[in-house]
Amino acid sequence: MAKKDEFEKNLESLEKIVQKLENGELSLEESLKNFEDGIKYYKQCKKKLTDIEKKITVLTDKLDD
Length: 65
Hints:
Helices cover 83% and strands 0% of the residues. By secondary structure, it is mainly alpha-helical. It is elongated, with a radius of gyration of 17 Å. The termini are far apart. The longest helix is centred in the last third of the chain and has 36 residues, at 28-63.
């Protein structure tokens, strides 16, 4: 089985954090810490998706040439 790439790991971590926060059983401090971690994973995922989108744009623009 192929090793998960960084994007998939970050997305999985983000999903786990969302589940914890939605559960509502964390203390305020735990919720804040999880929220901060979630923001970190979100930003990393967003950056990766933006980079991929740019690559796709470059590749599809070459099709028009």
